[in-house]
């Protein structure tokens, strides 16, 4: 992997992590509202899981494979 690729992955990773934190805050706020929109809550949680999967993939790409 080139330094350029690693830089692109790092930038995307930072963006996705921020979006993940934002979704976490939105989900928390929605859950504590008097009448939460359950469909919206479900969609936000699904999006958060998809982001977590993408974040894990990028972290795996950045971390070098070490053969023990």
UniProtKB/TrEMBL annotation:
Protein name listed in UniProt: DUF465 domain-containing protein
Instruction: Give start-end ranges for the coiled-coil region(s).
Output: 13-61
Q: Which UniProt keywords apply?
A: Coiled coil
Looking at the Swiss-Prot or TrEMBL record, what is one Pfam family this protein matches?
A: DUF465
Q: Which organism is it from?
A: Rhodopseudomonas palustris
Q: Which top-level group of life is the source organism from?
A: Bacteria
InterPro entries with a match to the protein in the record = DUF465 (IPR007420), DUF465_sf (IPR038444)
